[in-house]
Amino acid sequence: MAESQHNFRNISARLTLVSGKQVVLRETFLGEQVRKAAGRFAAEVTSLGHGRFRLWQIKGGTRAPVDLAAHNIEKIKRAEAPAHASGTWPHLGPAPNHPSGQGPWFELVYLGLPCSGRIECFRGRLALQGTDATGTERTVPISDIKQLEVTRRKPEPKPALSEGDTEPSRETRGQTEKEQIVAVKPTEDRVLVKPIEAETKTASGIYLPETAKEKPVKGEVVATGPGKRLDNGKRAEMSVRKGDTVVYGKYAGTEVEIKGEKHLIIRESELLGVIEG
User: Fold this and answer.
1) Separation of alpha carbons 261 and 197, rounded Å
2) Residue 96 belongs to what domain range?
3) Same domain for 79 and 197?
4) Residue 16 pLDDT
5) Is residue 161 part of a domain?
6) Is the distance from CB of 147 to CB of 76 less than 8 angstroms?
């Protein structure tokens, strides 16, 4: 599939607008319109962060946020918020400025499962983009939608095996999938580092056993994220770049395996310095 799941397009969507008008759009994409100055929103629809938005539910009298992948939404319907029944809503306290207390209440169907709550987009508002019957690209913000039903695009079926072919074993499939992993792109202010192994021999020529080796504390930068997003919406420039040799704490980062080799994903703030020369 050429498009990533972050801007995945489903087959079609049937909408009932707040005005009562019904609209059918094809090749639909559920994303967000970024909030701009003076309460306005960008005209274009961009992908959601990590392809997800937040649904603020009420579970057992407690605000229960859940992040949902936009391309798995099957239905959105505007509904009445639950009554402020004793023992459920009041003890949460007032939340006029909190996403759980703002905006309309929606009922959703997500991968066949019903859920309900208030929708939060981290940078703006949820919006649907698609093509109408005349071939015109249209954008419909969530504020204009009364009901939305999506015809999801299913994965293409696997081709039938030819005579003599055999289904690959689980072990073989696992190896093939590993070989296909060629890169990991860090997000935000994270850095992908390949550790440089500690020396196996001392200055006096003594070879160290595996148990005596120190954990690597320096490595080569393989890739960097786009930078931390600032309050003004821009991203801070990364202080390291691909190819730099960096020093970090012994227990910094998260270890990942790429093509059989150990790497670390480390936040820029966890890096202690850059080795020059």
Assistant:
1) 12
2) 5-151
3) no
4) 96
5) no
6) yes
Partners of 128 in the β-ladder: 30, 140
- Residue 117 class from Cβ within 10 Å (0-12 exposed, 13-18 middle, 19+ buried)? buried
Strand partners, 110: 73, 113
Amino acid at 164: G
131 & 221 share domain = no
Structure tokens at 98: 């909190």
pLDDT digits (tens, 9 = 90+) for 139-184: 999 999 999 999 877 655 656 655 555 655 555 554 444 443 345 7
Which neighbouring-strand residues pair with 124? 34
pLDDT, greater one: 154 or 53: 53
Check residue 89 and give its pLDDT.
45
The strand pairing partners of 59, in sequence order, are: 62
Q: What is the CATH number of the domain that holds 212?
A: 2.30.33.40
Looking at this protein, which amino acid is placed at residue 246?
A: V
Q: What is the pTM of this model?
A: 0.51
Structure tokens, 47: 């992908």
203 in any annotated domain: yes
pLDDT at position 39 over 80? yes
Q: How far apart are CA 126 and CA 221, in angstroms?
A: 36
| Spatial CB neighbours of 209, under 8 Å, sequence gap ≥ 6 | none
In a domain, 167, yes or no: no
